[in-house]
Amino acid sequence: MNGQKRQEIFQRLRAENPNPKTELNYTSPFELLIAVLLSAQATDVSVNKATANLFPKANTPEALLKLGEPKVREAIRTIGLFNTKAKNVIKTCQILVDQHGGVVPDNREALEALPGVGRKTANVVLNTAFRQVAMAVDTHIFRVSNRTRIATGKDVVAVEKKLLRHVPKEFLLDAHHWLILHGRYTCVARKPKCGSCIIEDLCEYREKTDVE
């Protein structure tokens, strides 16, 4: 795919949704960090239900530590891997209090040192909470990038690097949100809705469907 096509693709995505946002509910960098930590192998809808139960009880590292792991576990038990996630939430809160004054760090190295926080989670927090250029490649973005040929790669890191290199600079800050939403609602896994896709004529996917 050439640069002109990529430019047009992101111009259309921006025109349709000028201010894209994450679908996770949060009111602070800390709430976002916890929500993303909980979102591994879980939908945003299920995470939002869990955090709607958890955050009114405690939404700071200090408050969650005081609440304790058993009550955190109970609050998030509706999502997958809740036992492990509750442990990671508490450990993360302890590190934030001990090493960062209870504040979420705004750099990758410190974020990835937190239990349960990998590269993708760190990228989401850096991009969404701190508005830094970062590309969190999840299954949706991996699929859309490869299928459209905006950025091809055999693994998420390869796709991340190509997106950072090939997405026009003016779109880089919000590209993560546009791609994930496009993958979630239009360029879906089994039957992409090519017939109602605003970038169908620019996409280089060879097996397009007519599904509206």
List keywords for this structure.
212 residues, mainly alpha, Endonuclease Iii, domain 2, Endonuclease III, domain 1
Structure write-up:
With 212 residues, the protein is mostly helical. It has two domains: 3-20 and 135-196, Orthogonal Bundle (Endonuclease Iii, domain 2), CATH 1.10.1670; 29-129, Hypothetical protein, domain 2 (Endonuclease III, domain 1, Orthogonal Bundle). Helices cover 56% and strands 0% of the residues. It is built from eleven helices and no strands. The chain has helices spanning 3-16, 29-38, 44-54, 61-67, 69-75, 82-100, 108-112, 119-129, 139-148, 156-166, 172-185. Helix 5 crosses helix 6 (82-100). The chain is elongated, with a radius of gyration of 18 Å.
Helices and strands in order:
Elements: H1 3-16, H2 29-38, H3 44-54, H4 61-67, H5 69-75, H6 82-100, H7 108-112, H8 119-129, H9 139-148, H10 156-166, H11 172-185
Give a brief rundown of this model.
The chain is mostly helical and 212 residues long. The chain contains 11 helices and no strands.
Beta-strand proportion: under 5%
Share in helix: 55-70%
Total beta strand runs: 0
Which CATH class of the largest domain applies here?
Answer: Mainly Alpha
Corresponding CATH superfamily of the largest domain: Hypothetical protein, domain 2
Radius of gyration: 18 Å
Which residue ranges are poorly predicted, with pLDDT under 50 across at least 5 consecutive positions?
Answer: none
| Helix and strand element order | HHHHHHHHHHH
How far apart the termini lie comes to 25 Å
Structural class: mainly alpha
Largest sheet: none
The chain-level mean pLDDT equals 94
List the domain count as a whole number. 2
**DSSP summary: helix tally:** 11
